[in-house]
């Protein structure tokens, strides 16, 4: 647990919680790139069964979907909450109670989805939850575009990091996520995540501690994806798990990007998986079957909020 008390209001008055460093005064209703105010906004809190097997298991992951996003990928499958701002404002106490309610539902963990811009409040909610008996692991599920300084606030509160690692090439990251420094930032944030958790710990095939890095293959992105996988494996070997995903789903907003307005082909995905295996990746996950479907996108209907 973080031993230094956090005054969340100070962070929201001059917001630098993510690498965008907007300096927005969210406490007075100003918003920056993430489009979030000072109040925690969430759109769904429910058991989720579609994560990696060591996260969801058979009982499900207690997932809280937060509204807003500091990265804002054009192809985001959670676009309704990441950019359109669907969601309900809740208190820190209510968030702590949500954690406990999902623990009572036998969730394997608490899974915080896109939480970066609410970190000070989330740390307080975790502290309050633990004081009331929260004892299951906490998962930090993010874009990978994180401030190392802010990640340090989470040390002792987060057990499992589940970041994306989206791009190697800065022109791709700029075109689809509006930042040329994605690789640089994601590399440093991943280093901090691994420092905090160390090597992955699994008990009966369920992760209790560690890092799983997700990489989503984009249409036509095989070359860049190979560079990402090579970097991850050469840097961390079996210290982390690598999840190679084929679930890219072209939604309405990507029509302006014709090169990615299609699904990933079976040939593209198999080529990336074969490349990872040839490198020597053993601690990893792949997706099988029809995962590129809008049916895999949850309803953001305020369930559990």
Automatic annotation (TrEMBL):
InterPro entries: Aldolase_TIM (IPR013785), MJ0674-like (IPR040085), Pyrv-formate_lyase-activ_prd (IPR016431), rSAM (IPR007197), rSAM_sf (IPR058240). Its cofactor is [4Fe-4S] cluster. Keywords: Iron, Iron-sulfur, Lyase, Metal-binding, Pyruvate, S-adenosyl-L-methionine. [4Fe-4S] cluster binds at residues 69, 73, 76. GO terms for molecular function: iron-sulfur cluster binding; lyase activity; metal ion binding. Residues 64-179 form the Radical SAM core domain. It holds the Pfam family Radical_SAM. Binds 1 [4Fe-4S] cluster. The cluster is coordinated with 3 cysteines and an exchangeable S-adenosyl-L-methionine. This is Putative pyruvate formate lyase activating enzyme. The lineage of its organism: Bacteria, Bacillati, Bacillota, Clostridia, Lachnospirales.
